[in-house]
Amino acid sequence: MNKPAANPFHPRNRHQGRYDFAALTAAHPPLADKVRPNGYGELSVDFADPQAVMLLNQALLKLFYNLNWQLPEGYLTPPVPGRADYIHALADLLATDNGGVIPRDVDVMDIGCGANCIYPLIGHAEYGWRFTGTEITAEAITAANHIVASNPGLQRGIRLRRQKQAEAIFAGVVHKNERYQAVLCNPPFHASAEEAAAGSQRKVRNLGLKKNAPLNFGGQHNELWCDGGERRFIGRMIEESVAFADRIVWFTSLVSRKENLPALRDQLRDAEAYEVRIIEMAQGQKQSRFLAWTFLPEAGRAQRLKR
């Protein structure tokens, strides 16, 4: 049986090729108990087992970034290699306004950083960027702060803020006189709890599990769904971004559903965004992308990235 070909990650992504389980288990010995041969005779883990996925993430973050990482039960465990791709692609975007050089003196806001805090962790480790992560629940903020506190030196580069206004994106978390070179966001995908549950069932089928198998795909509801799904969430970002047009250079968000792009582009045209880009990314067997927009002309962007 031939193994499916995998699409390459970003060239700077540390997670090229297949997992090196010898190195991963050496970096994080508890992972060893979860490593087994898969259907191709290669070492792997059961990706339907949340504990195995958690241990794999801990090993990846320890081996490649020397980070200690833990997550409370019930929260989404992010795929580290794919998350790293967004960071590297964002770095390329910023470099286009900085003479082709990736800027290092950069402030980034992560909208909905989650309890896992994954984008700030990778972005700070790779490029030394400073991050402000926002979240709507106190529990997620507490968990993310615990990760930051568990890694000496991170408190100088990552701070967390709670968004207390349920319908706000930037208001209340972008403080007076603050400026950011970029915003990133991985918005809730589904439009309802029912849609999120159906998505979990599809994952069960794709992994070849029995129909009545327990659902091991966690996530708090605000991680999985919001009214209107990602289309509405990104739409709210666009609406609110107009008021922060001169304080944030690039606004970006992942867009999981490609069919949402035309409506979002129309909304950005109506908002009079100066430039809109769609950045395509290949992550394993999955194609993904992020939408980027700015209200600043090239000269203004370059000036803000020259600090």
Gist of the model:
The chain is α/β, with parallel strands linked by helices and 307 residues long.
**Uncertain regions spanning at least 5 consecutive residues:** 1-5, 190-207, 209-217
Q: Which CATH first-tier class would you pick?
A: Alpha Beta
Note the main sheet.
7 strands, mixed
- Which structural class matches the secondary elements? alpha/beta
- In N-to-C order, the SSE pattern is HEEHHEHEHEEHHHEHEEH
- Termini separation comes to 54 Å
Strand content: 15-25%
Which strand order does the major sheet show? 5-4-3-6-7-9-8
Give helix % range: 25-40%
User: What's the count of strands?
Assistant: 9
Radius of gyration using CA atoms only: 19 Å
User: What's the average pLDDT?
Assistant: 88
